[in-house]
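Data availability excerpt. The first of two example chains:
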Amino acid sequence: MNKKCPIFFVLSATLFSVLILVNCGGSPSNTESTLASQENTISEGERKDTIIVDEIVIVDQNEGDIVSPLSVNSENVVLDSSTREYPISVSGGMRPYTFSLGSSPKGSIAMDGDRGIYTAPLAGGNDTVTVRDSKGASVTVRISSQNSQTQIILDDLVTPSPLVMNPSQVTLVSGRYLTEFFQFNPSGGTTPYTFSISSSSPLHLGSIDAKGGFRSYTRSPNGMDPTSDLDSSVALIIRDSANPPASVTATIHIVAPLTLKHTISIPQRETIRPIVMVNSVIHFLASGGHAPYQFSVSQGAGTIDINTGVFRASQTPVQDAFVSVKDQDDRQYKISFHIVKIQEIQLGYLHSCALLNNGTVKCWGWNQYGQLGIGNTINSLTPAQVITSNVKQIQLGSLHSCALLNDGTVKCWGNNTHGQLGSNGEMGVSPNLTQVKEIQVASGSNHSCALLNDETVKCWGENNYGQLGDGTTINRFEPVLVKLSDKEFLNNVKEIQLGTAHSCALLNDGTVKCWGYNRYGQLGIVGSAANSAALVNSSTPVSVKADINNMILSNVKEIQLGADHSCALLNDGTVKCWGRNYSGQLGNGTTSDSLTPVPVTGLSNIQKIRVGSDFSCALLSDNTVKCWGTGARGRLGNGSMGNSSTPIPVTGLSDVKEIQLGTAHSCALLNDDTTVKCWGLNDQGQLGNGNNSDRSTPSDIQW
């Protein structure tokens, strides 16, 4: 005997079940007689529980009523142009029905009993109409109206696709000065959608609007700084309008802003661009954003490893260069800089400066009086950016510094007790000082001088020994001309140099004139130490004599002055010095003062000479350096602290392009125009190596 086998299919979205009874075996006659028997025994009250054999029916699980599937009974039509109305009939499901249009509707929908009346737009367009029954079952049709034909064309029934959020994970940055916005656009499900942030998420990281736009906070409404809780995640919940609603979750990862870590010194003023030295190597490290990162560099600026960020600057200067990093989400961070080389270095009493080829200046060391020119009075152990530009030349004094600008004017900054700035204000420019060819300020004193284009000289500042050369001993707050007499000014000047309290000028004819303090014979006046006339100060220039026979020193190529001694490099490559010699700074193998020039022992083929307070150095033809004089605090650079009355090599120094000496420290610029090595006294950070420990051998400056 055949049996009827019930099979149940439960549709959770509509709370309906489908029951199919199938023939499990036996002959048709048996099946028919069984069916007839069953139908004859069922009462009317039991009808709601009856399933007709071999047919599919839908039973309301809650009410028990037999219903058919919800459907829309419509067809393509041509409308009456006067009404543009189209009826949508519905069958099945559970009454009453509701009709709604999708997002951005073009037409309109109205109820007419169990029907919906759709009114097409004048201009035509596309709409979706969703019909829902009282139990939440729904069907959707697409309606396309064409204005030219006033024709309605129905697509196939639209079955809502699953609710999807793509992407389901995003990374946004948040910071005190940076916010990011992301628009979430879910698809599928039943519109409209609602958006909310999970209550378990940090609420101070961002907010969501009604349209799904999420913005990370720069500072949350409750005052919390988002940077205090970075690398956190926000769970965003998206729900549709179905009954019950479907939902998906998107994850928003909040991270720090993308940035680059590096060793480049960033100026305090935004108008001054950072600098990178030619040939230098810098390791850029990316952080924040969404790793992994990719690095790039501007054309001609050098090379960079795309993955590691190791950058090697070009061998030649580049005016505008940059290194850029990009994260996985195409965020980009860029640092711009100039690639520069060093034009010259200059040393003062306890501070040092370097002029770069782009016309900017960096200084380091003692800054009590603002002599570094960086806008404060804080010492700097490494080079710091000076607040000036368009510089052609620099010179340093004891407590002040000066710069010759490209327009021929002069700026000075630092201590102005004796008027050495040439003006009454900081970073002063003297109003009557223009057309300057060269400047020179004293290393270890308080006066300054400038060589003008007409080959005359003006000086200003302290004048207690006549070092300004104007025939008086009156301090001058503004530049005055150096004069030979009341009727004649010093002229035909090729170079000027200043000591602590004396000054000298190299003339075009290769002779030298000096003026100012002469206690130790540093002016080169003929006589002996016992001859008081030979040691008298002079407030006007006098010629330096070559010997006691009153012969004038000639064939001079370069002059340099220390605290109380003077030196000259001759055209034949030899060096002569005169004046004070208590520690052997004259280099002639003795410690006796000399009123006339004496040869420095063992020097020939010399390129340049430089003089400090009580020691001297020479740059040799093989680009090495030798020094002599006081060795205290390591200023001779030979690894010891002892004095030397004859030249000795500076340890480990080669390929030197330029040397400069301060009061008790020295620096050398190498031929790569980038490397600067310094040695000697470092109590104020004047060596620029990041500490304040003295060095008896050369050490690199930390740019």
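And the second chain:
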Amino acid sequence: MISKSNEFTRRILHLPAIRPCESVSLSTLVTSLIKLAHSICSFKSKTFFTNKKNASVSIKLIETLLVFLQEIRNTNPTTSEPSTFLCLSELHFVFQKVLFLLEDCSRADARLWMLMKSEKASAHFRELMRAIAIALDVLDLVGGGGDNEVQELVDLVKKQALRAKFDVGKDDRRAVRTVLRVIDQFEWGIAPQSNDLKRVLGYLGIATWNECNDEVKLLEAETEREYETSQKRDVQFLTSLKAFLIFCRCTVFVDTNDNVVVQQQFAGSDQTIVTCLKSDDFRCPITLEIMADPVTISTGHTYDRSSISKWFASGNRTCPITGEKLVCVDLVPNLALKRLIKQFYCCGNGTAFAAHDLTITKSCGVVISSLAAEQATKQLANFLVFMLLSGTSDERNKASYEIRLLTKTSVFNRSCLVEADAIPPLLSQLISINPASQENAMAGLLNLSKHSKGKKVIVENGGLARIVDTLNNGLKIEARQHAAGALFYLASVEDYRKKIGRITDTVPGLMGLLRGRTVSGKKNALAAILGLLMHPENHWRVLSAGLVPFLVKNILSEYSVEREDDLVTDSLAVLATLAEKLDGAMAVLSAGVLPVILDIITSASKSRAAGEYCVSLLLSLCVNGGADVVGLLVRNSPLMAALYSLLADGSTRSSKKAGSLIGILHAFNEKSRFSSSSAAIGQEQFVRVW
């Protein structure tokens, strides 16, 4: 009967109560009401950061009502007037809302947001207590009050519920005014007073870096959910509040040495890999592209919003997967999947590998800002650069870590930090003997290497050599992984990929990561190598380093028809690029990878990307390997069916290559038949009929 709250799906101050079923017995309803009342009363021992008085009064009123409810239960009710049941049902509905409201007011990660929503929270308390009073008044009229003492308690609750003002407290109002004043100062480009920031944090009991960061993450989630609404009313205000908290996190806790260890523990979460998922799990069943805005329809299947909206707009009222007719075509945002996609592609400091996967990084984060947030970020960028240049060792490490967080997904934050000249001091941090400082600096540089001007500044300040040195000699494997990721983004510029390739230790360093044990390291190394291969001069470097036999050995050991690893797909992409040139194709053929390529492309469980890379690789091998390779492919009967499947259902690029390969195989067959026919005719010319 009691609907439990789920903090991962229910938004703050959204109170989704459910009315009891009409068929429920009165005794069950009363028992459930008592259980709800006990849950509400348990909040007496919890800390309320805002609306303290309103919460306390509400709990006391319901605690008093608990005596009345227990009296009803003790009378063993079996039947009652319909109006009595209706009143108790209304109390049950209201109690659920009160419970949700108390949960919100006591949430440790929503203190600032609840402070700024004090008016709305107070209005909820007022309305809910009035609703209880009205329900009790009607209940009294039908004679449900019990003995005189209980009746007096009920009357007392009604009077207090109607007379209590449930206004915003003076301290809450004062704290709200301070926050709004700081936001106004941000908008005017004025640095806020440190005392104002500390006063607000102290009032809310936010005493550590972690507590402040939890508030930031809550506001990020609320912003994304608000952005999904049609009105988007609070989006900019939420963004301003988040900027306020980030500014506090970076400036107020700068001297708190206890947080350095906590930060590194938190940093480890950047490397969390969802090993049970592949990129294909994030593709829309209609377009087969990575979903930017996943939504779920009534059948439970998830699609990208744009593609399923077009499907419905075309007059279709069925599920594209099951064909089931839909009574309702409402689209429900799949926020859990959206967070997974964001984590998979954006939030870990890794690199998106395939070109078609890079598009998701443009839409995986909600790009929203406000004037206050923009000005606060500019001030904060200057502050962090100052700390990098003149702070203590711990302060420099803290500044590097904050830069790492700020630049993870925000293009604007990257721009501000590049303009604030954060890159030179970050490069200096790469030679730090503190492993954490080096890792944080390298992660920040990785994020800034995604910015066009950031790439230029890194190269102009001698960053390529330092990044390659970190790739080879980084104090932590994470720093080496980030270095490979930075090389991937830097290699997107033609001149830079040439310079990177000419640094002697680049390819050996990437090979060292490939031989390591971390999946992120291997993926980043393969991505960097693929970027370098876009310059022809780098082909012989990777070939001479023994990359091809190493990748082939890995594919042979890792691939199975039942389980296809993403590293196998990435390795196929590199081999396909190498095979476009004659020396690369010969190296691939010499390594003996052709049988497993044929196994992968003819497998029914292969991923879309693996199929594309396999057909590209086979086409290059046919072109550069000649008739011997084509002859082997012709003798593989399942291959043609797989190629026709790619021709019909693959992407434009893979369909084109599949068509070209089919043409080569058909031409070889025709030529073979013609040669056989000619040979037969030649033999017949020597036969004489006597």
